[in-house]
Structure formats: structure tokens, C-alpha cells
Design goal:
Blueprint lengths: L1 E5 L1 H12 L19 E6 L11 E9 L9 E9 L8 H15 L4 E7 L3 H6 L3 E9 L3 E8 L5
């Protein structure tokens, strides 16, 4: 698998398909997408020697956003997802690690997100800590704020 910083158009179809399943296309457009300081990470499969074009199988979007209660420069991420057929194979982790490295290169000292409660184990495995009380974001359900200062993975 390979990661790259890409334009939002490169990851949008996957973001819409896996994070806004069955919802209108516009629900997958984030206000941060049009900001000049936002970046998007794509994770591609490895088509091997088949001659096929690599396909985006994982994605995440990062943008500068102060974490409430923190003074350190921070990047928030959202829209992280992977294709159902590759879940559990490291595509999400690869996207997140590449994004954290890029955020650090852009001056971030911490990374954070509003992550689904169901993904707590994933975030903790990657060195994140849940902070504060659980809260609900509709339509996706219960979330925690997850934070890490370990950006250089």
C-alpha cells in the first residue's frame, strides 16, 4: 500500500461511499475541504504486476484546528475511512499515520478528532487517548474526543 497527499477529488468517492452510505452526495462535503491549509491523505492498494491503476482504499482529511483546552498547535482530522474489503488490513492506520506525519511537518504538536466510540480500540492502539465525556453526533452516533501528541510515527 502507498500513501499520498492528494486533492479532495481523489478521496471523495470513498469518503462518500463509506462514511455517508445512502446519504446525498453533499453530506460528504466538509466545510474544511476548500481551505488552503487542509490536506487529504489517500491510501492506495498495490495492484502488483497486473498493470491495473492503484485504487484508493483508505482516506482521511486534516486541517489546523485548536483543540479545546489546549494551547499547542493542533491539526484535527475527520473523514477517515477504508473500503469494506480491506478493513482490518492497516489501510486506516496507514492513512492516519501519514496524516499525522504531514501535520507534524506543518507545525502541529498534537492531533485530534471526534472519533466514533466504536473505534476506541483502533485509536488507543495507535496511541490516542479519549478525553472528556462521550457525546453524540448525528447521524453517526456516540463519539469521544481522541488526542495524541505522538505525531512522528
Amino acid at each position: 500500500m502507498r500513501t499520498a497527499v492528494v486533492p479532495v477529488e481523489e478521496i471523495f468517492a470513498l469518503r462518500w461511499a463509506v462514511l455517508r452510505t445512502g446519504m446525498p452526495r453533499e453530506t460528504a462535503v466538509y466545510p474544511e475541504d476548500s481551505r488552503g491549509d487542509t490536506f487529504h491523505i489517500a491510501v492506495y492498494d498495490d495492484p502488483g504486476d497486473s498493470g491495473a491503476e492503484p485504487v484508493v482504499k483508505g482516506c482521511v482529511t486534516f486541517f489546523p484546528d485548536p483543540m479545546p483546552g489546549e494551547t499547542a498547535p493542533a491539526f484535527r482530522f475527520r473523514g477517515m475511512g477504508s473500503s469494506p474489503e480491506v478493513r482490518g488490513q492497516g489501510y486506516g492506520a496507514a492513512a492516519l499515520k501519514a496524516g499525522l506525519r504531514e501535520a507534524a511537518a506543518r507545525g502541529a504538536e498534537l492531533g485530534w478528532c471526534n472519533g466514533r466510540t466504536s473505534a476506541t480500540g483502533f485509536y488507543e492502539h495507535l496511541g490516542f487517548t479519549a478525553v472528556g465525556a462521550e457525546f453524540t453526533i448525528e447521524p453517526s452516533g456516540p463519539h469521544y474526543v481522541f488526542v495524541t501528541k505522538d505525531l512522528d510515527r
